Amino acid sequence: MISADARRAGFNGVALGRTQVYGAVADAVCIQSPRHRPPSAWCDCGFYCFHSLDDARDLACDPQYQHCVLLEIAASGRYVRYELGLRYARQTVRSVRLGRCGCGRAATALADGGPGVVGWRRLHPVCGLCAGPRPVLTPEAFGVLVGQVPVRTDEAVDDPAAAVFSPLAGIGTDVDDASLVPLLSAEVALLQARLDQLQSRLEQLTHRSE
After folding, report:
1. Phi/psi at 145 (nearest 5 deg)?
2. Model-level pTM greater than 0.70?
3. Are residues 156 and 184 in the same domain?
4. Three-class SS of residue 24?
5. Is residue 168 part of a domain?
6. I need a surface site. Which of 70, 71, 123, 192 has the fewest CB within 10 A?
């Protein structure tokens, strides 16, 4: 998350915590009841963490979480164990890992991700191609705004041995201008033909109404 004045950065949760924005060092807040301290055994409040990084990466495949980043944290204070890790009261973010862009490429920056919360805009990890002309926030800049926290691409995304997908033959990520000319010319020709067809149909309807 980035503040409306672009002077601060932070994080918010992936479930009920989506209404709360917190910094690199934060105490859990229960939004359901102020009568107990998080985490409570009778409530699902508190920060959650996984013991296994693989479990966190698996969760990022779910459409609800695919735009999230991975946080390496130090948990402290009260805690409750659950089947995959801990639910705890206080955390310190030690590093941020960017996963994949929505297109599947490694994310290299952060861009506006749409709806945020009052005073804060949501950011999504994006690659350079999908960012296009949109303004982006570099990982380094986000790290500074959130309190000098290291931000990097997750090594699982950069691992060449894990790359089983490749571009189709003749279609690469570094298409030059010369190869784009015939493609764009063909698209223009199709659009022009479609416009001519629409213009002809419009004239027929106009004459018919007269």
Report:
1. -65, -30
2. yes
3. no
4. coil
5. no
6. 192
Count other C-beta atoms under 10 Å from residue 97's C-beta.
23
pLDDT score of 187: 65
β-strand pairing of 136-137 with 2-3: unpaired
Q: Output the six-digit token pair for 1.
A: 């998350």
Please state, in angstroms and as integers, the Cα–Cα distance from residue 81 to each residue in 78, 85, 115, 210, following that order.
10, 6, 33, 78
Predicted pLDDT of residue 136: 92
Count of domains in the chain? 2
With a cut of 70, list the residues of the chain below it in pLDDT.
16-17, 158-187, 190, 208-210
Residue 128: CB partners within 8 Å, gap ≥ 6? 108, 109
What local confidence, expressed as pLDDT, does residue 176 receive? 54
Over residues 116-133, the pLDDT tens digits come to 899 999 999 999 888 888
Give 95-107 pLDDT, tens digit per residue: 999 999 988 888 9
Domain check: are 120 and 183 in the same one?
A: no
Domain encompassing residue 58: 2-162
Alpha-carbon span 90 to 2, nearest angstrom: 21
Same domain, 21 and 100: yes
Counting other chains too, the contacts that 169-177 makes at CB distance below 8 Å and 24 or more residues apart are: 173/105, 173/129
CB 51 within 8 A of CB 73: no
One domain, residues 104 and 194? no
